[in-house]
Amino acid sequence: MNFQNTISFAKELDAQDELRNFRDQFYIPLVHGKESIYFTGNSLGLQPKTTQDYVLNELEDWASFGVEGHFHARQPWLPYHENFPRLLSPIVGANENEIVVMNQLTVNLHLLMVSFYRPTRQRYKIICEAKAFPSDQYAFESQARFHGLNPEDAVIEVSPREGEHRIRKEDILSAIHQHGNTVALVLFGGVNYYTGQLFDIKAITEAAHQAGAYAGFDLAHAAGNVELKLHDWQVDFACWCSYKYLNSGPGGVAGVYIHEKHVADPLIPRFAGWWGYKKETRFKMEKGFQPIPTAEGWQLSNAPVLSMAAHKASLDIFESAGMDRLHLKRKKLAGYLHYILQEINQQEQEHIIEVITPEVEGERGCQVSMLMLKSGRAVFESLTQQGVIADWREPNVIRVAPVPLYNTFEDIFRFGEIIQHSIQQLQA
After folding, report:
1. Residue stretches of the chain with pLDDT short of 50
2. In the chain, what is the straight-line distance between the N-terminal and C-terminal CA atoms, in Å?
3. Of 304, 320, 336, which one is at a domain's C-terminal end?
4. Exposed (0-12), middle (13-18) or buried (19+): which is 292, by Cβ within 10 Å?
């Protein structure tokens, strides 16, 4: 598409947008009495207006029924978690028996590593991205130590080349091949939280399997953002949070995917809890763990219904919008933002912004990371004062993420105006 840096063009794109009315289903934070330009859906998605009703319904049913709400609530609590596989299946590209909603992200990552990181004397290495999200780094380090290994030897990080910001796919595949039969697990983020780079999940999974290793992914910045086909790509396992692109509230309940070739295997080691026990005999309270032969078999505790109610409010909106339409708009929004930033750089005598997120459509999601070459913090503070809610990452990166459910092309145009004006004011 031939973009234009004009308000009339942005408004025309919004008028043509099939998803434009979904914005009205979200609360847009106000700054100085006006709707903000909210570009931090990559950190915390906005609240759907229906969330309060979904949660209030459960509070009312708790008041009305007490413990009997497990059976008689409008959405009975006993099987509440069973609402989610159908809703999440098109979002992560998985079969329903491969999905379960439970716990929080890093808890789930540890539980999955119990099952899929089982180092031996020969095969013990974890290959991951350099500068993965810190929580992931800590999980890898502590898992290695738990098995009596030195993380400096067991955890192999793949880094960008000198002078580059992104990790080349060929370097990831080369590292897997180089370490060969010493690799136990390849575990990457789907989208890097800092640069916004979308990794080639299919190619990484294939390389891991060729090396005889498992392939897993942290999809915190990918679920609800980019197109995923976890089952078709033969990914062994993945986990994600729900509070970013999935708009399910701060610290919201998280999700897990385990490929169906693993879910029915009772011999796979796991940390067990009673909610993962076979439903038919769970309440007999007998010794000897017998897992549900789906991803539900990794559950430990019963469902946190209030958090899950918020999650369902958002996922019902996703179902109504449709992932195909969301992906089409997401690509156009990101393309327009890249174009606007290029226009700013071309108009300024001195380049202040270096976009470190890939420009290639298939290598990015919603997020665009701007490396500020000068006055980064001052530019960020100026954006905040003028109603842009963005995200600062040390030492000098501003992250912005226009998301298709509630952001507009006019948001992007206005953002371009504001950041260009801020740069000019600082240069004056």
Report:
1. none
2. 34
3. 320
4. buried
With beta carbons less than 8 A apart as the criterion, state whether 352 and 372 touch. Answer: yes
Q: Evaluate the CA torsion angle 251, 255, 256, 257 in order and state its sign.
A: negative
Give the pTM. 0.96
Per-residue model confidence (pLDDT) at position 428: 65
**Integer CA distances (angstroms), 127 to 138, 157, 169, 182, in order:** 14, 6, 13, 10
Q: Which of 245, 132, 259, 244 is nearest to 187 (CA)?
A: 132
Predicted pLDDT at 348: 74
Domain shared by 266 and 408, yes or no: no
Q: Output the CA angle 58-62-67, nearest 5 degrees.
A: 125
Cβ within 8 Å of residue 57, ≥6 positions away: 73, 74, 75, 309
Which residues does 40 contact at the CB level (< 8 Å), separation at least 6? 389, 390, 391, 399, 400, 401
Q: How far apart are CA 144 and CA 184, in angstroms?
A: 11
**Would you list the DSSP string of 395-426?**
TTEEEEB--TTT--HHHHHHHHHHHHHHHHHH
Quote the domain boundaries for residue 354.
7-35+323-427
Within a domain: residue 49?
no
Evaluate whether 13 touches 347 at the Cβ level (below 8 Å): no
Residue 85's CB is within 10 A of a number of other CB atoms, namely 22
Structure-token pair, residue 140: 């890898």
Calpha distance 82→28 (Å, rounded): 30
Give the pLDDT of residue 347: 83
What Rg, from alpha-carbon coordinates, does the chain have? Answer: 23
Q: Which residues pair with 291 in a beta bridge?
A: 277
CATH of the domain at 117: 3.40.640.10
β-sheet with 237-240: strand ranges across = 99-101, 255-258, 237-240, 214-218, 183-189, 125-129, 155-158
